Amino acid sequence: MLKKDLIELCLLHLLSQGDRYGYELLRPLHAAFPDTQESAVYALLRGLCREGCSEQYAGETSDGPARKYYRLTGQGRTKLAALLERWRALRNAVAQLGVD
After folding, report:
1. Strands 68-72, 20-21: parallel, antiparallel or unpaired by DSSP?
2. Residue 27, φ and ψ in degrees, nearest 5
3. Any idea what DSSP says for residue 37?
4. For the segment 44-80, what is each residue's pLDDT rounded down to a tens digit?
């Protein structure tokens, strides 16, 4: 499982907890993967929307521009389950080799 897949897994997981706007997704991802560019995360979000795994919508505005919110779709839940399965298999394989 490559870093891109791990970040997608994390994005889908975060969205499974509820709708979020881009910066709400970016903060925890940047904390976990500090060398990841903001533009790469947004590119993955756009890709998930194109695949039908998430939907984007404009939220309520206060004084600034409307925030772009993202929500998980049924297809996104299916992809999340598949990525979780792959992650767990990889984690178990590495653990069997004694790697912590």
Report:
1. antiparallel
2. -55, -55
3. -
4. 999 999 999 999 999 876 677 788 999 999 999 999 9
| Other CB atoms within 10 A of residue 21 CB | 16
For residue 51, report the phi and psi dihedrals to the nearest 5 degrees: -75, -10
Coil vs helix vs strand at 56: strand
SS3 52: coil
Q: Residue 27 in 3-state DSSP?
A: helix
Name 20's Cβ contacts closer than 8 Å, sequence gap at least 6.
14, 69, 70
**CA 58, 59, 60, 62 torsion-angle sign:** negative
> In the block, which residue shows the tokens 């194109």?
50
Instruction: Tell whether pTM > 0.85.
Output: yes
